[in-house]
C-alpha cells in the first residue's frame, strides 16, 4: 500500500479523548446505537418485509379463513381476533433483540463496543429501540389492514391509543428479556428456535384466537394466567371489542384485571432484566 | 517507569467436563512508553487472553494489569478512553458502510457530530478505503475489513494501541500494507502492544519481543538478543534428491555441534556449527566427493523460528486459523 504523499498527513493526531459520563453522553450513546439499528433495518429489507407483510397476512388469514368457522357469541370474529393478532405480532417482534445480541457477540462487534468509553447500556437501548420501531411499523400496518377488512374500534380514540401503547410497551419489556437470553445463549439460531418454541404455545394457548372458556380445563387455566391473555384482554377491552356476553365469564384475577396485570408484567420484566442485561453486557466478550 | 505492566496475571477457564485451562499462568510484562511490544506465541499460548485483560474485556483471576498506573480490572472506565483496539476478527458492522462504521466509533468516543465525520473522512483517506466509504462492509475482503477495524482503533489518539494478530489470515499483499500502516503509526510515537504468531512480523515491527507459551513469558528481548541466545551459526542445505538425505545427515552430524534437523519434506537440512565458514567448506567437500547434488547451501544466522523451537520444544505453528479464547 502506498502512502499518500500529501502535505496534509492524516494521522493519529485525532482529538484527544474526553469521556465525560453524564446524562448527555448516555443519551447520545443510546441514540448512536439506535441509529445503527435503524440503518440495519433499512439495509436488510427482509426485516421490513417480514414486519409489514406477515401482519397483513395474519389479519387476512384469520379474518377470512377462521371467521366463518369460529363463532364468538355476540361479536364478530374479525373484531375479536384483531387484538390477538396484534399481541402475537408484537410479541414475536420482540425476538429480534435476542438474535441480534447473539449475532453481535458472534461477529465480535460487542468487543469493539466494550472497549469504547461508551455507556454500557447504550447497545441494549439501541437494540430494544430497534424492536420498538419495528413493532410500531407493524402496528400501523395491522391497524390499517384491520380497518380495511372491517375491524372497528368501539371505544374512544384515546382508549384505543392506550391499547396500542400497552401492546408496544409489553413487547418492549419483553425485548429486554430476550436481549438478556440472547447474550446467554450466544447463538442467533438457538435463541430464535427457543423463543419460537416458547412464544408459539404462549400466544396460541391464550385467548388470542379463541375464547379461553372454550378450551379444555388444563389449557383454559394455563390460558387464563398466561400473560399474553392479559395483554390480549387489555387490548380487546381498550378497543371496545369485548362482546357483552363474554364479560365476567372468566373469574381469574388476571382476566378480571388485565390492564393492571400487564402493567405489573411490564414493570417486573424491566426491573429485573434491564439491570441484568446491562450487567451481563459489561462482562461478556466474544469467543 | 513502565507504562504497561502485568504482574503475575492468571486467568483460567473451565470448559464443561474438562480440566481447568490456564490461559494465563503468571504473566509478567513491562512495556516502556512509546515502544512496540510484541507478544509472540503459537495458538493457545494466551496472547488473545492477555489483550482481552488489558482492553478491559475480561478480568484476570489474580495478579494485576496496569496502564500508566491505572488498574485495568477495577478502573476500566478510565482505561477505555486511552486505548485503541484492533482484533484478530474485524469488529465492524456488516450493514454499515466503511464511513458509517468509523463515524459511529467517533460518536461513541464522544466526538461531536462534525468532528466525528471529519475524522472518518480523514481515516478513509489515510487507509485508502475510498471504495468502502459508501458501501456496506458486507462483501468486502478480509484485508479491507481489517483496515476499517484498525482505522476504528485510531479514531481518537490512543495512548496505547492494542493489535491482536493484525495480519492473521491476510494475503501477503494485505499483510505488507498492514505492516506499512503499523510502522507509520509507531513512527508517531504511539505505544503499541502487538500479538502475533508470525516471527517475521515481530522481528519487523517490535522493539521488544516477549515469547509466550502456556500463558507465561518464556523469553524476552530484542530480535537480535533472542537470536543470540540460541547462539552460533547454522549450515543449511537444500538437496536435489530426497534419496541423499541419509548421506547428507551423516556428513552434517560429523561437523555440527548438535543434532542436525531434517525438514518434513526430506530435502532441507540444518545444523548448528562452531566455526562457520570452515565447517561449510568441509561439508561441501565431503558432499561433493559423495556425489550429493545440491540446490542450495549456505550459512545463516538463527531465525526467530529457531529461537522458538529451542525455547518451547515445538515449532511456532502459524498454520491453523483462529485462536481459541484460551
Structural features:
heterodimer, A: 287 residues, mainly alpha, 12 helices, disordered N terminus, B: 326 residues, alpha/beta, six-stranded mixed beta sheet, 11 helices, 35% helix
The number of E-state strands of chain A comes to 0
**DSSP summary: helix tally of chain A:** 12
Distance between the termini of chain A: 31 Å
Q: Average pLDDT value of chain B?
A: 85
Instruction: Give the helix/strand class of chain A.
Output: mainly alpha
Question: Radius of gyration of chain B from the CA trace?
Answer: 23 Å
Write the H/E string of chain B, N to C.
Answer: EEEHEEHEHHHEHEHEEHEHEEHEH
The tally of helices of chain B reads 11
Could you explain how this protein is built, in words?
The complex is a heterodimer of chains A (287) and B (326). Chain A is mainly α. Chain A has twelve helices and no strands. In chain A, α2 (45-66) runs antiparallel to α3, α3 (77-93) runs parallel beside α7 (157-185) and α6 crosses α7 (157-185). Chain B is α/β, with parallel strands linked by helices. Chain B is built from eleven helices and 14 strands. In chain B, the strands form three sheets. Chain B has a six-stranded mixed sheet, with helices on both faces. In chain B, strands 2-1-4-5 form a four-stranded antiparallel sheet. Chain B has a four-stranded antiparallel sheet with strand order 12-13-11-14, with helices on one face. The longest helix of chain B is centred in the middle third of the chain and has 16 residues, at 172-187.
Which helices and strands, and how do they pair?
The complex is a heterodimer of chains A (about 290) and B (about 325).
Chain A lengths: L22 H21 L1 H22 L10 H17 L2 H12 L1 H6 L7 H28 L7 H29 L2 H17 L12 H9 L1 H13 L13 H4 L1 H24 L6
Chain B lengths: L3 E10 L7 E11 L4 E5 L6 H8 L7 E6 L2 E2 L4 H4 L3 E4 L11 H11 L4 H14 L15 H12 L6 E5 L7 H16 L3 E6 L2 H7 L2 E6 L2 E6 L1 H8 L2 E7 L5 H11 L5 E2 L5 E6 L2 H14 L4 E7 L3 H9 L14
Parallel strand pairs in B: 3-8, 3-9, 6-7, 7-8
Antiparallel strand pairs in B: 1-2, 1-4, 4-5, 9-10, 11-13, 11-14, 12-13
Helix pairs in contact in B: 3-4, 8-11, 9-10
